[in-house]
């Protein structure tokens, strides 16, 4: 019954025994970089295990791309073969890490020895094996370390009374912590040395896992959007970039880190939209800033009504004095009057009759916009020109870009564009404005966008918020997509804001500002509580600034500017609010209340030995009409509070203090007063 | 402010627009093969999307490795950019598939055209573009298809009244389904042709995704384990392989598909274990079959007390007559008397004094076992010898192996061994007996084991069962790990079986046999309801067959043999019970009741157009002492039952029938009668 032909064999066997898998952060197996920001400790986890009962030593090795040296940090077992470590990043640019696992033969030997000693077994043979392990390690070491290992090996080899043998004189001082051979072999210094000089060829190292480190602003920042043409103090003329400079003290008082301007370029006149988006503009209608390009220039020009490129330089410099970064809009589309339409007609799609196609999403038509054809045969020149636009503004000091509708351009274009920019300038931040399907938004984040707008505006119930935030902060999506929550934008005035009144404005502001470290508002529409839609059922603002110049009364008595300023000050003062990954929801027995916390230096204290923990607990009443109360069941561990230890919660909005104890506490919020608690959790020092 | 140096660019851009990701089944990015069995339809899912609003066409292409041709099946959108298709596999061996996505320009044009027509827009220009699309497709086609596409292009190009233009005479008949150009462009035949001859260079194809197709037995089978030496009909002598042949009719009556024998090799005498695992054997003690090897031979020899290799051949052949497959045990370890100990001492680990180390898990010691040293410098010879063992038994007709403690040997060894065996004999099945940590069990499945023992014996509450089965059947683990549930093994007599009486035996049998398509019992201990432990608190059987010959009274009045036979007959009759991926739990308002269903041809009907649906619903009372009842809230969709349609549930254990309607139904189970319903769900034909 024996087969005649020789059996075929599978590929060459892997003889390395440890396995490393399930690494996080690792995006699509390393196809894309995970994201981090300057000042972060990158938390790395992996499954690592080996056959049998041997003990592993696992570590993370890390470096900035191009560095010669690797840093190294030992991983800690979390149980169930999961390991964890963190490494710090303090410069922008591409980094990488690997996870390395090896059998720790000395530690395994020592553990087994202890078990044998505990069971009263004779360990003469084992001591001999230990001596052999040390002698082999000495053979791999050099200099002083070799001397130390050899001395330790001799101690074991010549131990007439086993572990109870006294240590000889003359043993290197770093080992002589104790009296007996037993003290020596169970001591940490020897364990560390023996491991470091274990066999060199048995370790398994993961492939490099890329991490893109971006500026801190990519992780944490309060954005404020305004239309420059609506900043005029004079109701008889539109605003200019110079007026925006004058508005900076107001923006600074609000606590904004980023001032984002919709497109500032010349606006086309052909097929210009009228007020409220009417198909035909009337005389004097300002048009949409997103219909870019006229005889005055295109994407590298400034609308003459707003000023000049020099005015941009002045604004960027003046904003910097206030600690504010100016963000520009990248809207890669053209009005019919853009110079490229005549200079590069091949960059646009044509109809059979030779005319250029305007933008459509059939049956919707956008006659004032010509989309660019990214698939044009002349794509190299087109893509280069768009790269040139970004570089132009970078060269004028702009380092933050809000990108309009990136999901209507090829992913490969964005990967190339952002990669090309970051190759030179890894400090540049790109915010993706893609209100589209989840996989598309995720892909844009993977190919390089630093931040992403989200579905937050349409997530309003407790159930929706909990589910969405859990997805954004607790799944692998968190490794590469940084959410930015906006209660409103020039395109989105939700029916909730239309009807909910001040309690809804406040609640949505608090949610956005405390749920995500990056968030923004479109003002002054937000703080002035603009809530009138273009028509019933629409999410468009009435008399939208997208199509018309507005003049705002910043001193209106119902302005929420003070609250915005307060919230942003709280965000700056509390590192807990500057990260997203520690977000945890807490149960409360009322579906109109949502309760969550964020912490800093609580979960991962070990990697930040010198910092002070910071914990913020937020309670929001989602019901704009009625007071709501309930019992909260706090996850005390997430708050860093030991069970049974009283603690103080300090309301950062009202300055009230409450003394709480245990996990069950009562909360009550009247929307007519204030619909939210933003509570600093303070554990008084033990007596 | 312009930078002096030319900016660096990122790597060459990807101009292919579609994205394919999130493919399932795909194990560790293709590092390992997903698993399927002959007769399966492999369900493939992927995320596929493109920028903008273009429509995609997605398909799965598949082949057996080495085939020239690829099969192809179109994928169906599930929503949220998820796509799905299934492809059939009918031969064992390695297969592969790819997911291919391309923009369907004709479908996109047609959708936009319909929207424009619906809005009353002029579509003259669009019809011209459609004609151009068809003309380009004609240019890429050949022969008759080219003629058809060119004719259609002409129709559009020369349509004076647009879509209402009548079709000319002489149009190829396959297109002439209708009267007008509108009928032509919205017809399916043209859509299919236009897509097939779209641009060839714009599609994205995933890397090949490997799938190992194994025999049906790898997916579905009822195992029965017995010790050959305990099959003697004569209480004065031990059993032999010839006695096992005589036992086959009993095993066949039980409905077993696999008869698994613990090791049948010569047993060592040095340090032989005594009854109940005593350190020293008494005279006449039989020893553990896992202490393999004596002067009579090693892993390719048969214990002379059991018979000869020829007896194995006879048993394999006789079992086949009953439709039973014999499975042998692969226990890669040696007794101190194994021939390899003297022939190849370098295959074992030695102490400093030169003696061979016996097996230990300090402080536990197994003096009758010498582990093999898979890391020996002579590893090539050792691994080849072990491969030779497997091939030896394969050459004697054995195609199923239960592998003892694979987790104490390197993963790389198993990957090489199983890969080498399957390179020639992809019909061989390996069951992993690794009761260890989850990641280790999963890795063994990844490297090639066909099936895996599980934690089932220790999962007893409803919460535990639901969580564990959800993990096994609904997460990516299901792509490569096939669970095999065993209520007992020679090593595991749970305290539940010790104390729960017949209701627990029945409930555990029903759970194992209906939750996983592969399951087994260790008999006759199981059907004879053996429940006495070696000592209180132990999971070892009293007078365990592992160390002693037993004589069983198969005719004992409390034997569950009839129930086992019934359950196994139900499993054979109901395809729903032969797969794991359709398992769904249903809510019931009593924590002592667990309710779940399995279905066949319900979820994936589209891929199996010719088969009959089959649905089984199981209700088990987990409480062995008291009747339990409750209201079930059925997921009717999982049962393939339309809401409002009455249906019949037929109890396959008691033959009772009940007429149910709607999702809410009452169940009650008295453990003193029978603790489980196994219900076929039958929807009577509509009147």
Explain this structure.
The structure is a homodimer. The radius of gyration of chain A is 31 Å and the shape is globular. Chain A is α/β, with parallel strands linked by helices and about 675 residues long. The mean pLDDT of chain A is about 95. The first copy, chain A, folds into five domains: about 20-105 and about 210-215, Immunoglobulins (Immunoglobulin-like); about 105-195, Up-down Bundle (Methane Monooxygenase Hydroxylase, Chain G, domain 1); about 220-265 and about 305-330 and about 380-575, TIM Barrel (Alpha-Beta Barrel); about 265-300 and about 335-370, no CATH class; about 580-680, Golgi alpha-mannosidase II (Immunoglobulin-like, Sandwich), CATH 2.60.40. The first copy, chain A, starts with 18 loop residues before the first strand and ends in a 5-residue tail after the last strand. In chain A, the strands form six sheets. The first copy, chain A, has an eight-stranded parallel barrel. An eight-stranded antiparallel β-sheet of chain A has the order 28-27-30-25-24-23-26-29, covered by helices on one side. In chain A, strands 2, 4, 5, 8, 9 and 10 form a six-stranded mixed β-sheet that branches. Chain A contains 16 helices and 30 strands. The interface between A and B is large, with 75 and 74 residues.
């Amino acid at each position: 019954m024996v087969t005649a032909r020789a059996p075929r064999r599978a590929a060459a066997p892997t003889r390395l025994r440890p396995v490393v898998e399930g690494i996080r952060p690792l995006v699509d197996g390393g196809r894309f970089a995970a994201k981090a920001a300057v000042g972060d400790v990158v938390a790395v986890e992996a499954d690592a295990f080996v056959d049998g009962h041997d003990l592993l030593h696992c570590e993370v090795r890390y470096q900035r791309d191009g560095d010669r040296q690797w840093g190294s940090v030992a991983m800690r077992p979390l149980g169930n073969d999961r390991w964890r470590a963190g490494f710090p990043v303090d410069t922008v640019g591409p980094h990488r890490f690997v996870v390395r696992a090896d059998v720790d033969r000395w530690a395994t030997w020592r553990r087994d020895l202890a078990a044998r000693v505990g069971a009263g077994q004779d360990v003469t043979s084992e001591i001999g094996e230990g001596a052999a392990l040390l002698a082999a390690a000495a053979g791999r070491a050099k200099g002083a370390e070799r001397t130390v290992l050899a001395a330790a090996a001799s101690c074991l080899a010549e131990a007439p009374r086993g572990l109870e043998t006294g240590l000889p004189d003359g043993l290197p001082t770093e080992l002589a912590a104790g009296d007996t051979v037993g003290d020596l072999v169970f001591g940490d210094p020897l364990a560390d040395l023996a491991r470091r000089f274990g066999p060199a060829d048995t370790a398994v190292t993961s492939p490099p896992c890329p991490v893109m480190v971006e500026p801190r602003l990519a992780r944490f920042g309060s954005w404020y959007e305004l239309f420059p043409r609506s900043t005029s103090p004079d109701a008889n003329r539109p605003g200019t970039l110079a007026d925006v400079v004058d508005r900076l003290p107001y923006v600074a008082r609000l606590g904004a880190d980023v001032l984002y301007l919709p497109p500032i370029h010349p606006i086309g006149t052909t097929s210009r939209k009228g007020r409220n988006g009417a198909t035909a503009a009337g005389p004097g209608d300002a048009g949409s800033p997103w219909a870019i390009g006229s005889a005055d220039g295109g994407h590298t020009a400034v609308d003459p009504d707003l000023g000049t490129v020099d005015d941009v330089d002045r604004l960027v410099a003046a904003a910097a004095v206030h600690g504010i970064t100016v963000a520009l809009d990248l809207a890669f589309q053209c009005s019919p009057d853009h110079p490229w339409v005549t200079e590069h007609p091949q960059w646009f799609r044509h109809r059979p009759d030779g005319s250029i196609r305007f933008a459509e999403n059939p049956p919707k038509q956008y006659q004032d916009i010509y989309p660019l054809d990214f698939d044009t045969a002349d794509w190299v020149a087109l893509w280069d020109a768009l790269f040139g636009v970004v570089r132009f503004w970078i060269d004028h000091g702009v380092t933050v870009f809000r990108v309009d509708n990136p999901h209507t351009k090829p992913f490969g274009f964005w990967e190339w564009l952002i990669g090309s920019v970051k190759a030179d300038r890894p400090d540049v931040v790109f915010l993706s404005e893609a209100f589209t399907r989840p996989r598309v938004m995720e892909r844009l984040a993977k190919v390089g966008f630093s931040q992403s707008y989200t579905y937050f505006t349409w997530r309003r119930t407790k159930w929706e918020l909990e589910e969405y935030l859990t997805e954004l902060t607790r799944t692998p999506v968190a490794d590469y997509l940084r959410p930015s929550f906006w209660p409103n934008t020039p395109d989105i005035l939700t029916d909730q804001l239309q009807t909910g009144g001040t309690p809804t404005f406040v609640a949505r502001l608090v949610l956005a500002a405390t749920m995500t470290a990056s968030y923004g508002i479109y003002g002054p529409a937000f703080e002035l509580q603009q809530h009138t839609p273009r028509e019933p059922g629409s999410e468009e603002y009435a008399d939208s600034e997208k199509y018309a110049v507005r003049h705002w009364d910043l001193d209106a008595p119902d302005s929420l500017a003070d609250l915005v300023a307060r919230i942003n000050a709280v965000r700056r003062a509390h590192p807990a609010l500057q990260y997203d990954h520690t977000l945890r929801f807490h149960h409360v027995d009322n579906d109109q209340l949502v309760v969550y916390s964020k912490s800093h230096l609580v979960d991962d204290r070990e990697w930040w030995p010198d910092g002070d923990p910071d914990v913020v607990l937020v309670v929001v009443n989602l019901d704009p009409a009625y007071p709501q109360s309930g019992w909260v069941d706090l996850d005390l561990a997430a708050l860093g509070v030991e069970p049974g230890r009283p603690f103080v919660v300090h309301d950062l909005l009202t300055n009230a203090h409450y003394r709480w104890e245990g996990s069950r506490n009562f909360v009550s919020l009247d929307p007519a007063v204030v619909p939210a608690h933003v509570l600093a959790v303070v554990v008084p020092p033990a007596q």
